[in-house]
Amino acid sequence: MRLTRLIWAAAGGLAAVCFAVSIAVSGAVAEEIGPAGLSDLPAADVVILGEIHDNPVHHRNQARAVAA
Fold first, then answer.
1. What is the pTM (predicted TM-score) of this model?
2. How far apart, in whole angstroms, are the C-alpha atoms of residue 41 and residue 68?
3. In tens digits, what is the pLDDT along the chain, a chain of 68 residues?
């Protein structure tokens, strides 16, 4: 049982490192995108959308980004 947990922990750590390296290599940037910019998002395989959880404006903007 301990070996299984160790393998899963190592796999999770490896996945995190691979994700970090892919972000660094791809030149990804993080910046605030206003409502007007949501209709003109650059092409990307993955887009990470942040929010303040109880902010309805953020939720509407996320819905617009997903629909774009």
1. 0.41
2. 8
3. 577 777 787 777 777 777 776 666 666 666 777 777 777 777 878 777 777 888 888 888 888 877 77
